[in-house]
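Researcher: Please generate the 3D structure of the following complex. Treat every line as part of one assembly.
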Amino acid sequence: MSPLQHAMLGYAAAAVCLWGYALWIWLAGYSSRAARRQQHNEVKP
Amino acid sequence: MNRTFIILYWLVTAAAFAFGLWLAFAYAPREQTMGDVQRIFYLHLPVAINTFLACLVVFIGAVGYLWQRRSVWDDLADAAARVAVAFGAVVLLTGMIWGHSAWGVWWTWSPRLTFSLALWLLYVVYLVLRSSIESRQKRATVGSVYALIAFLDVPLVYFSTRIIPEIHPTSVTLEPQMKTTLAFWFLPVTLLCVGLIVARFRLARGVPQALAKRSEA
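Model: Done. Output below.
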């Protein structure tokens, strides 16, 4: 693997870890809000 | 928090990352000794500094909880610890990739690397410890005391290269374009670090608030 490929691998690993974590939080928040909305609708028909 | 502001915040962060990539791979010149692999440095250092920042937030959250006994401090510490683990993993990964190209080995037990691995493990254990305690108050108290002790490793990581001579570089001579690139990379990485801590904190605060509202109804 060339030095440039090493550098690109480093940036790719960082992108997967950090933006992957950001996506995970967003998905967790989205599903949490969706569950709350559903419960709210069930309580108030 | 305003929805438009949140969307704008993440768009600016993503754009700053894209511009940073252009700076790192096109604008900054090739380093003469190590070659292109040195370009990892523009990401590696800001992520390492932001890992310390996240650890500091955990420490502040722990002190705040032990002082006031309010769950908001504990939620802040928990959110920052998760981000510290994610950022710490990136520091280790980028360091290993850089080391493989520059030194010919993925890992060496030098003081800086060993203390960095210990720091990452300390915060992984913090999260595992918290998840193993069911009582919210006990979890917050034990976690806070543990976080105070874990933070002691941060100055050890920072000062390790100054105290003990080792393979990890202590200072790097940079050309002006390299300095500009490095300075710019602190923007997207810090925005991402703060954004992730706030997002995880809001997620943690949203669930108990919703439960409280439901029990009131």
